[in-house]
């Protein structure tokens, strides 16, 4: 993979930087700016070298049309503070506003364009539709334009800005992608055992799919701890009542297969034994600890319980390599933060024993910081959850493939 220095002299050239600025928001307030801080060095380097820097990124999952809830405007303001230089914000992505913002850039100046996913072409499964949107992005750059792929958290997406644009212009990997890949390479090629993977979060359908391949690359004696939103599909597959918890009804058979495959391959698949269940998705909805096998029909599980936290910690006690993606519960609300805190503490303990620990994912990284853990408590905090997982699965990641070509 070529990197920033391979771009040569960028002074006066328009460089499109694909960053992952998908930060958690409370209304318009950014609750964790980790991805902005992680993206800043590449943008600064290019600006210092005199490039005209055009940053593109997504926020949330809007449906291919503008949605004020997902505007990148607050991100532009924070990016400017982090960079310590002005950031011109364009209120569209490839329209008149974007063209004007790019034309207005002098050497060493930075613009951020509006959310890529306000355009249906960005995420389209149709090659031609995605290609047309990629062409529109490339048209912003002029003849000597270049592309820097630095949005590690999105490299697993076959999206126009990730996969199609680099096929059309000179392209290199940014410093963040370079650094992330280096750590994950170490995790996969020099895996000291015991090796434990902890999965949680809310992107349940994405992550259930991951388990399939993960079981293929994990070895006998490795452990897979399952918390977060996906655990209920496992409990249900085992025949337990899960009340109103998150459930992928159509994945029950698949998950039954995972349980069986884990058993056959000797990978220990560990599920929670107790759950913090509430009457509604709210902090004050009477949270109670209930057995994992008996979640009341009128309640939903919002965290793993204290016994499960201790169980997971015990499974991590002798780990030499740990990868964790996805909070154990709805950590944003204190009554449901205990499971995530317990796992974070177990990883921190493993780090101090000399294990290689990696936390991946926008929300997982935000969670450990929100719960007061120092970044040095972990070997590496990755900006990508799904991206890291797919890398660990041994999959070809479209965004890396395009950068390597
Ligand atoms: N039991 C649960 N029910 C609903 N949401 C959950 C549950 N457990 C965790 N979550 C939510 O998962 C979200 C993070 O999931 P995800 O985006 O998959 O993680 P990451 O960004 O680290 O990859 C958090 O906002 C958290 O509130
Ligand atoms: O937040 C992200 O991924 P993650 O939650 O797996 O870390 C990335 O920005 C990708 O977003 P997406 O999962 O909506 O494509």
From TrEMBL:
Enzyme class, UniProt record, top EC level: transferase
Subcellular location: Cytoplasm
Keyword Oxidoreductase: no
Pfam families assigned to the protein according to its UniProt record, in alphabetical order: PGK
Pathway as given in its UniProt record: Carbohydrate degradation; glycolysis; pyruvate from D-glyceraldehyde 3-phosphate: step 2/5
Keywords associated with the record: ATP-binding, Cytoplasm, Glycolysis, Kinase, Nucleotide-binding, Transferase
Residues where substrate binds: 20-22, 35, 58-61, 117, 157
Catalytic activity: (2R)-3-phosphoglycerate + ATP = (2R)-3-phospho-glyceroyl phosphate + ADP
InterPro entries per the UniProt record, alphabetical: Phosphoglycerate_kinase (IPR001576), Phosphoglycerate_kinase_CS (IPR015911), Phosphoglycerate_kinase_N (IPR015824), Phosphoglycerate_kinase_sf (IPR036043)
Main location: cytoplasm
Binding residues annotated for ATP, in chain numbering: 207, 301, 332, 361-364
EC number: 2.7.2.3
The family this protein is said to belong to: Belongs to the phosphoglycerate kinase family.
Subunit composition and interactions: Monomer.
Name of the molecule in the record: Phosphoglycerate kinase
Protein source organism: Motilibacter deserti
Gene behind the chain: pgk
